[in-house]
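Ticket reopened. Same input as before:
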Amino acid sequence: MIEIKDLWYTYPGRTEPTLKGINLKVKKGEFVLLTGPTGCGKSTLLKTLNGIIPHESGGIFSGSIRINGTETIDSNHMELSRGVGLVFQNPDDQIFSTTVEDEVAFGPENLCFEREEIDKKVEEALQMVGMSGHRLSSTNSLSGGQKQRICIANMLAMMPEILAMDEPVSQMDPGGTQEVLNTVRELNRKLKITVLLVEHRLHELAPFADRIVIMDGGKIIFDQPASKAFDYLEVFHRLGLRVPEPVELCHALGIRASPLSAREALLVLNRKNSKENMITPRILPNPEENIGADTSALAGPAGNNDSVNNDSVNNDSIISIRDLWSGYDKNLMVLKCINLEIHKEERIAVMGTNGSGKSTLLLNLAAMLKPYKGSVKVLGEDTRSKNPYSFAGRVGFVFQNPDLMLFCDSAEEEARFGPVQLKFENIEERARTSLEAMSILNLKQDLPQSLSRGQRLRTAVASVLSIDPEIILLDEPTTGQDRVNIEQMMDYFKNNRSTLVFCTHDIEIAMLYATRILVMNEGRIIADGKGREVIKNIEILRKASLTQPPVVEIANYLGVDAFSVTELVEMLACRGSEVINSDVINSEVINSEGIKCEVIRC
Amino acid sequence: MKNIVFFFLVLVLAIQPAAAQVKEEFEPEDMTTFMIQVPHGVEGSGLAVGGSNLSAYVFFESYYYGNMNVTMELDLPESFILQDTPVHSFSLQTEYEDWYRFVDFYVPVDLPPGIYNITATAVVEVEGNEHTIVRRTRLKVASKEEIADEIEVSGLIIPSDEDGYGDPSHPSNSLVIRETSPALKKLLKVTDLRIDREELTSTFIGVELTNKGDSTVPVIITYEILDIKTREPVKAFKPAIMGMNADTLCYATLTLTPGSSSLVSIPLYISEGAMRGEYLLRVKVKLTGSDWAAVTKDQKITAISRKWGPIIITLVSSLLGLTAVSFFFSRSKEIMDKFKTRNLVLIALFGTVSFAAINLPMTILWELSHALFGPFSFLFTGLFYEILLYMLIASLVVLIPKPGVVSLFMMVRFLLGGFITGSFTPITFITLSLSAVLLEVMMYAAGITGKNPDPENRFMMGVVCGIADMTSGYASFSVWMVLYRLFYSDWYIMANILIDGFLYTFIGAWFGISLGNRLKKVAE
Amino acid sequence: MIGARSIAEPTIKDTIVHRTDPRAKILILISTAFVAVTLDNPETMLLLFLTILSGFALARMPAIKLKTLAFLLILLIWGTIYSQALFYSQLPRTVIFTIIQPDFPVLGWLTNGGLFVYEEGLHHGAIQGLRSASILSLGLLICWTTDSRDMLNGLVGLRVPYSVAFMLVTAVRFLPIIITEVATVITVQRLRGFNPKRFGSGIIKTSLNILTPTLSNCVRRTGTLAVSIQSRAFRANPSRTYLKKLKFSELDKVMVTACIFAAISIVIIKLLYNMYTSGIYYTSGLRPVYAIARGYL
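Engineering reply: fixed in the latest deploy. New output:
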C-alpha cells in the first residue's frame, strides 16, 4: 500500500534535512502508530504521502514514495488527493466552510464528481463518522470531537485508501478523543482503511494500533508490532515517550507482558497470579460497590491534606464565590449557582467537558466577566465594580492558546512587559527569574512567536510569572502540549506554592499537581474534593466525560487505594507477602468505557 | 449743333452763382436742428417722480455754411430746482457743427403731480439778423403709486441669452455654477461647454418691461441676488471684474415708449466662491435720475453647482474600479494561479483580521468619536483606521510580495463587509477598488512587489501607501459629494488627506514592515 | 446590547424574502444602490427607504435584529446630519451654534473662517442620510435573510471566481474565531497592566500588540489550513462541480427584471435631466422626461 524508500527531504530555506533516509512499508488495512519526540519529522513524513511535499512545498526531495505502486513524484495532485486523506491536530484549523455539508462536499466538488455523486459521498462519509444528523449544521456549532470527525469525513468523501492523521486527538477533550478514536478504529476495522497516525499519547492510542513506528532526528529508529513494541521500554523512556500505565505496571511488577488497557492488565495479572501464585490482593470488593461510593465526600471544599505532596494549605480564603450566575447572554447562563472558596496556596484543577463552564469560571475570577447574580470576591474585592485592569499584577492569566499572549520582540521583553507597565521595581531581576524558572533564559533574545510550541507556552507563563501574581489562572495549559513542557511548568507552581486554578482535561496531570479537583457539568460544580476522592467516583467522571486512569481502574478492581503505578506496585508488593489462594470468578462488569472486564474475585 | 451745346454750357456757368446766391437766405427751421429731451433720452413727454435728479438734454446743429451765434435758454417750471445755468451762448462756424448740453435740475420731492411744460428757446443771430426757435416739451411728474402702476416687469428670464431671450435647453429660474479650475476649463472648452471667463462664469438675465402709461419712461434696470432668508446681497454674484465694481457693469437702461414692452438683458457674473442653493433674484427698475425703485420684482432662483472636478474624479474612479474588476474577472484564472493556496488562505485571514480589528469596532467608534471630537474626529479615528489598516497591508505585502495581493485583500474586505454588514455600497466599491489599483500600480512601480521585490524598504512603503491613500481619500470625498450629495469643506478634506491619508498611513506602513518581518519569522 | 453576533448572524425563516434566490437579492441590492444614489427628491427617497423597511416586516425579523437595525440607522443618519450641519455649503444657511469662532487662534485660520452648525445642514443631512440608510437597510435585510453559504453560492452563480469565493467563505468562517482571539489578546494585555486606551503613541503600540499575536496565529493556521485544503484537491482541476444548484423562481425573475428595469430607467432619466441642467444636451422631445425627473426623482 505504502512503500517508502530512502526518502530524504529538506524544507526550502533550510540546510538540515528533516527526513533522512526513511524506509517504511505499510500494508493495506494496517493501523500504524507513528510517534517520536517533537521535531523528529513525523508530520513532514505524512505530508509526503499525498504529494503536498514536494509538489506544493518545494524543497529538496529525493527517494521514492509509492502509494499503491504509483510514485507520488510522478502523480498529479488530484490522484494523490484521492488516494491519501490527511487529518491534522486542530480541527478548527482545517475546516473552512460554514456548514458541514459544504465542508464535506468540498473535496468531491474539486474532483469534479457529478452532483448526485457528491450528494451520495457526503452522506456516506458523514454516516461513516456518525455525523449524518449534522449535515446542515454550522461548523462553528460543533464540539471539538465532532469537528475532528468532520475532518475525517472530509477525507472519506474522497474515498481514500489511506488516512494519514497528524495528532488528531491531541487537542480534544476526553469525550472528543473517544469519539474520534472510535471512529478511526471502526474505519480501520470495517472498511479496511489503512491508517497512519502520528501521536504522542501512546498510552491512549497504542491499543488501536497494529504497529508502532518511532522516529527520531528524521529517521525511523524503531518499528515493531504493537503487541511487542513495549518489550523495548528503554527506547520509549530514552525518547521521553509516555508509555501506557498498564505496561508500566506490568514491567514494574516484573511481568513480561505489555497490556495496553486496564482490562488486559487485569487478565495478565490474573493469569500470572493463577500460574505463579504470585501477588494478588486478599479480598477484592464488589466493584459495583465502588461506583458512586464516595459521593458523600464530594460536597463542599475538601480538606487540603494533599496526599500527592502533603502540602499544608493556608486557610485564608482569597477567592470567595457566592451563588454565582454568569454567562454571555442573560437568557443563557453558563454558570449556575456556583459557591466556591479558594484558599491561599491551593492548586485547583477544574475539569469537565467543553462547554461545562470551566473557562467562564476563570473569566469571572479575573473580573473579565461580571456576575449576573451573586458575588465574586477576589482578594477581598468584589469584582462587580472592578475591571480586569484593577486586578492587573495580582491575578495572572495564561490562556489556552499561549500564542495570543506573545506580542513583544523578544522573550525577555515579554517577561519585562508586565512589570514595566505596572511600574514595579527590580524589573530585570523579575524578568530573569521568570525566564530562568521556565528554562528559557537562553532564548531571551529570540522572537517569542517564532519559538517552538512548548517554548511559547513557557514564555507566556514567564510573562505572567514576572508579575508575581497572587493568583494564577491557567486555561487548559495542557492542550496540545508535550508532557515535558506541562510537567516543567506545573512543577514550578508546585514548588513555589502558588495559588493556582487551572482547567484541564488531563486527569493524570490533575491528580499529580492539584490539591483539589473541581468537576463541572452544565455550569454547576458536581464534585469538589481531593483528587483521590473525585477520581474514585466513576459516575461523576462519566458526567464530565472523564475516565479513570488505567492504574486507578486496576487498583479499584483490585480494591486497592492506589493512584499511580508506583503506589500500586508498592501496595501490591506489601500484599504479596501474604500468599493467598484465589479463585477467579468470571463475573463481568462494565467499566466506564463500556468495555467488558473480567474481574478477579478472590 | 456745336454752337447750341456751347450756349448751354455758358448759360449753366452763368446761372450757377446766381442759384447759390438764392440759398444764402437763412431759414431757421430748415437750416438747424434744435432738440430738447427731458429727461435725456426721452422723445416726447417724459415721466419723472418727485425727488429725481434729471438732466435736460439740449442739442443744436447748424446746416448753415456761415457763422451763427446762438443764445439758448431753457425755461423750466419755477418749482424745479436748476443745478446748472439755463442760458448758454455759443457760436457755430460752419455747416454740420453742433452743440449740446445737459442741464441738470432737480424735481423736488414735494412737487405736486402734474404735467409741467418745459421750453427751450434759441435765439440765432445770422449776419445781424436774429431768428428765434422755440421747442417745447412736457414732463409728467407723477406720484410713486401712479408710476408703479404704469411700469411693470412683465417677464424675468434667467438664464437668458445675450438678447434676453430664454433658452429652453436650460431649466428656468436656475443658475449653473460651473467649474473654475483653469485646467478643467481648458479641457471642457473642447467639449463646447459654456465657459466664459478665466475666473468667472456668466450668464444673462432677461427682463421684460411694459409701460402701460402714456409717457415715455427712461429706466435703469438693476438686480441683486439675495440670501433668501436674510435678504442680504450675496457678494459671490457681484464680483469685482478687472478691479471694477460689478454694479458698474450689471445694469441696463431702457426707454419705454407709452404702451410698449421691451426686453433687455443684464449680465450676471458668478465667482468661484458662489455656493449652490436657493436665492432671491431681485430686479429693480428705477426711473432715470431717481434712486427710487419704481418697480421691484423678486424671483426665487436655484443655483446649481456643476463643479466638474468631483464629477470627473468620480467618473474616473468608477471606471477605473470597473475596469480593474472586469480585468480581474476576465483573467481570474491566470491571476489566481500566481498565488499558492497558502497565500490565498493568508490573504483571507488578513481580511478577516482587518474586519474584526477595524471594520466592526469602527462601525460604532466612528460615530461616537464624531460626537466627542466633532470635525476633528478623523485625528482619532485615523489613528485606528489608517494605522491598523496599513500595518496589515504592509505586513501582508512583506509576507507575499506579489502583484495582486493588495487587490485580493481589498476584495475580501469588500465582500466580507457586504456579507456581514450588507455594505455592498457604491462608495465602498469605488474607494476600495481605486485604493487597490493605486497601491498595486505604485507598489509595482516602486519595486515593492514584482519580480525582484523589495518590500522591506520602510520609507518607500510609507510613501507609496501614503500617496495612494491620499489620492483615494481625495477621490472618496469627491464620490461622497457627487453620489451622496454631501458637503465637505476644503480645509476638512485637506486636513483629512494630509493627516489621515498620508501621515497616519505612513506610520502604519512603517510599523507594518516590522510586523511583517516578525510574521515572516513565524512563517519560517 | 448590540453585539457582533446580532449584526453578523442571519435569521433563518421561511418567508418570501428568505426564499428569494441570493443572486436575485444581490442584483436587487445593486439596482437599489443605483436608484438610491440617483434620486434627489426627498419624498421619493423616503418612499424608497420605507419600501425597504417594509421588507423587514415581510421577513418577520426578530426584535433584536430590528433593534440592531434601528441602532445602526440612528448612528448612520445622525452621523450624516452632524457632518452636514457643519459642512453645509449651500445658501440659505442659518448658524444655530458656533463651534469655532472665526477669530479663534489657529483653528479659526485652519477652518477657513470658523466652524458653525447650520440649521439647514441638519435638514440636508437628514434627507441625504436616507440615501445611505436605504442601501444599508437593504444590505442588512439581505444579509439577515440569507445564509452565508447561499450568499456564497449566489456570488459563484454571478461568476465570481471560486478561488475568491473560497477566500471569502474562509474569512467568514474564521471571523467569530478571530473576534474572540482579538478580544483575548486585549484582555491578556490588560491583565498584564497595559491600558490600550492610552492615546497617541500608545495606539501604535496597542495596534502592534493586538496584531502581532493575532496575525502570528493566522500565519500558523494558514499552514495547516492550506495543506488540509490542498489535500482535498483544491485547484487540482481547472474547473469544479457544485453540490448546490441555485434556481431562479418565476417570482425572482419578475422581481429582478422589474428592479433592473426601474434602476436603468431612473438612472437614464436622471442622466438626461442632469445633462439638460448642465447645458450639455437638450431636446424638446424629452420635456416630459425632464418633468418627471424634476417632479419625482
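Residues 162-191 of chain C form the longest helix (30 residues). Chain C has a mean pLDDT of 83. Please confirm and we'll close it.
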